[in-house]
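Morning run. Coffee first, then this:
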Amino acid sequence: MELTFHPFENPGDSGCFQVVERRLDGEGRLAHGKVGDADSTLARGRDILHASLACLEDDPAALVHAADVPPSEVRQACLARVSASGWRLGAIPEDL
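And here it is:
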């Protein structure tokens, strides 16, 4: 089966990043402030990586589909592929 993803529906975008952001915020690993007039959020890259991996460990489809957003047809296809693959995140190296 072949799937085509158009940029506006690409499940690899940051559309589901809020799951990582919520985890980081819950762990107190985000700094909120202003850059000029823009509300901004700052996080260490290492913390983002660890939070992302933890989200994937909890749910391999966590970055493809947010539970509080109805999935598009493209995301539904991605969810089906992740589910059918049986993919699970392997061991996370301690030194990341």
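The chain has three helices and two strands. Good start to the day.
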